[in-house]
Amino acid sequence: MPLALLALAIGAFGIGTTEFVIMGVLPQVANGFGVSIPTAGWLVSGYALGVVVGAPLLTVLGTKVSRRKMLMFLMGLFVVGNALSAIAPSFGVMLIGRIIASLAHGAFFGIGSVVAADLVAPEKKASAISLMFMGLTVANIVGVPGGTYIGQVAGWRVTFTIVAALGIIGLLGVAKLVPEQGRPETGTIRTEFAAFKNVQVWLATAMTVLGYGGVFAAITYITPMMTRVAGYPEGAVTWLLVLFGIGMFLGNLLGGRFADRALMPMLFTTLAALAAVLLLFTATAHDKVLAAITVTLIGALGFATVPPLQKRVLDQASAAPTLASAVNIGAFNLGNALAAWLGGVVISAGLGYTAPNWVGALLSASALLLSFLAAFLDRRTRPATGRTVAGSAQTQRTNTLTGH
């Protein structure tokens, strides 16, 4: 494994911790600022929306500098946002801090995906991307449960102080280990935007929004769901998040391995299974053992979609992948924001803490339908391409025989 992948994984670990740890301390933050849990859910939605905006904006601005320098800048922005969250005197200020930190998220993973793919052979690109994202999954095994425990014992402000320190470590890792690759080869903003003329790029992005959004519909409200429905004590949320993280870790590895072999079949399988498991979660959430198993499965199936979806975008936007890659990372978080908001809506409507699982199942099932459409369009274009190639070969042979 190239050491640069380790540096990217370190940065991903810090970003993954701050993205997900808020869900473990959401009740404490809500109590601290005197707001309701659905209102506190805006710390999830606001972060996600910041990623959606920051991913394309900072990626476009980053075309003027080397990818290494841009990654270092993004980690610096991440540190500032988390430090502000740690000292926030009001809910509004904390929301601003979360948004500042989130601006770095999409561009880091987007640019990092391109760097990771460039470090290995073409047939190993999805595996390299999954290794970078491994930092995010390990964050859910170690960083998020640890941060949740610290937040419950010492206070959530200590949690975000430690997260800011993780960002500093990530910044130093990028500075030390990531090679200077120069500016993106495409060179112009117009070329980067040209990738979006391909309808398959849009379909892959939409699959990302809906498919991974399904995960966040359930996981955003995992703390009240597990404590008020399943009957777990508040302290048990820490190890439940460990199970979720273990599922993410395993799903990420499997997604990366099988996406290099059979990308679309991998998406069909994982999206269908994810929709089914989320639907079942409305029932299994009432039993402690079944709830724990389901949380693990949601993590595994949800993150098994990440490497194939990211590789799908890189493949379809191969001439100018940097912006498309970052936009797709933003799409993950647009799905997170949409799902967290919809989950809050159904809870506020009095449908109960398991109602977001229905939302998640519908979102993931919609992504499955889009994956079928993308595969159908692939099959329509391939025969036409084959006929064109065959026709060109026949014309060349005819010209040769006739002396033209």
Automatic annotation (TrEMBL):
PROSITE patterns, alphabetized: MFS (PS50850)
Principal subcellular localization: membrane
Transmembrane domains' residue ranges: 42-61, 73-93, 99-121, 128-150, 156-178, 199-224, 236-255, 262-283, 289-309, 330-352, 358-377
Membrane disposition: Multi-pass membrane protein
Cellular compartments annotated: Cell membrane
Keywords per UniProt: Cell membrane, Membrane, Transmembrane, Transmembrane helix
Pfam families: MFS_1
Domain Major facilitator superfamily (MFS) profile residues, every copy: 4-382
Matches recorded under PANTHER family: CHLORAMPHENICOL EFFLUX PUMP RV0191 (PTHR43124:SF3), PURINE EFFLUX PUMP PBUE (PTHR43124)
Protein name: MFS transporter
Species in which this protein is naturally found: Actinomadura nitritigenes
